[in-house]
Amino acid sequence: xxxxxFMDSLHRTLAGSLTSxxxxxxxxxxxxxxxxxxxxGQSEExxxxxxxxxxxxxxxxxxxxxxxxxxxxxxxxxNEVYEDGSRENAQDGGNGxxxxxxxxxxxxxxxxLAVLLVFVVINIVGSVVSMFLPILxxxxxxxxxxxxxxxxx
Length: 153
Known about the structure:
The protein contains six helices and two strands, in the order H-H-H-H-E-H-E-H. The chain is mainly α. A two-stranded antiparallel ribbon has the order 1-2. Helix 1 packs parallel to helix 4. The protein is rod-shaped.
């Protein structure tokens, strides 16, 4: 079995049972594993033999994911993932492939940041309005008086 056959079989088996982000995370891991082992001089056939049947490997990953979901419930500790889009030459052997760094942020921190952002926006809008209010009030009064006078004539 070749690397591409192994990866295709693994992806097909995982795709029906896990979220796309979990599938992508596992696929990325095994792609990097293949790359690392190939750089160390192993052949694709040796790596595939070492990993075993991709369907069995996928079933193990699926069971582990279900076990984690049961033990930690549906509320996970981290619920957002951010990628910075940088290229890591040390990890990918300098071939320029995309290797994102992943940062996880807890949900409570996202909520705090959202509240702070709303607070800052309200303060900025309030500051701008209060700065122009001394100019706007007389202008509005003059405009209203002029319109009233024109309507009487």
